[in-house]
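EI: anyone free to look at a 335-residue chain?
SC: sure, send it
EI:
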Amino acid sequence: MSRYIIGIESSCDDTSVGIVSDSLDVVSLKTVSQTSIHKLFGGVIPEIAARNHIAWIFPAIHRTMIESGLTRNDISAVAVTGYPGLVGSLLVGVAAAKGLAIGWNKPLIAVDHLDAHISSAFIGKKKKPEFPYLALVISGGHTSLIEVSEKGRNTLGETIDDAAGEAYDKVAKMAGLGFPGGPVIDKAAQSGDPKKYDLPYLLKHPRYSDETVFSFSGIKSAVKRVLDEQDVDISSLMAAFQDRVMELVERKIKLALSMKKYEALIISGGVSANTKLREIASVVSKQHEIELFLPDLQYCQDNGAMVAAAAFEDLQAGRFSDIDMDVAPTSRTKQ
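SC: here you go
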């Protein structure tokens, strides 16, 4: 008999609830986006995001259950993003998950947001990769290269300033393209000439040559200097910006793959929907003769299904969270 987990995601501005089976197939998923609200401000306003989660979290849970055709008796556990994220937003999801866990008499599983993004690449797939594998979580809040093995997760390198998605959002705002920046820049870049503007390569200093770290703050300043000029070709500037960002990402992935033998490459997070990044991932994985796992486009952004998918290993191992857990690194007790 299949087991099902309901997952709740509220770490930023998307209120999302999903139900996933133990074969990592999505049974139902409901996501309420706040993009139309936060685009008025050019970015996410934490207090507004938290208030909207309060309004939408229980309707999302109700609709997900109705569309699944399941009852509370079919649910094996309640999973929720516990860390990291916007504290106010996280509190709403965690409070709702605690209520379900108590009311339905189900175990509670707090999930690390990065683990959830990694698991998004396995949703709907027939298998998971062999250990060890290399994962890149690249989004508005994270840019991290992570080694995943039988022993767990080890961060090899991450951004020392802005996350890649954050840089996309800020550059799009400066260029007057709107919010969120990832999709609009990716679209604009398709018709531009990346060689028209000679933007600097990122982290080219020798001190960074053997480090799997990222930095995207400098490229924003370079774009701003061009935007201060007259008669700017926005499409070509966005193409040049994206070219430099992705060149750094590709270089760091290749560096990590040169340091150790991995069985697979996983790329997930909101920026994993980027067309150029997907092309790079395909080429690099073939060059290194390893499997490539990418989330389907509907699972690149934050969603409840990836939270549920990430919780199955804990369910199988009996690792559950304390009902009085706070929004902090996961606190679990073995049962």
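EI: The domain at 4-121+299-334 is CATH 3.30.420.40 (Nucleotidyltransferase; domain 5).
SC: 👍
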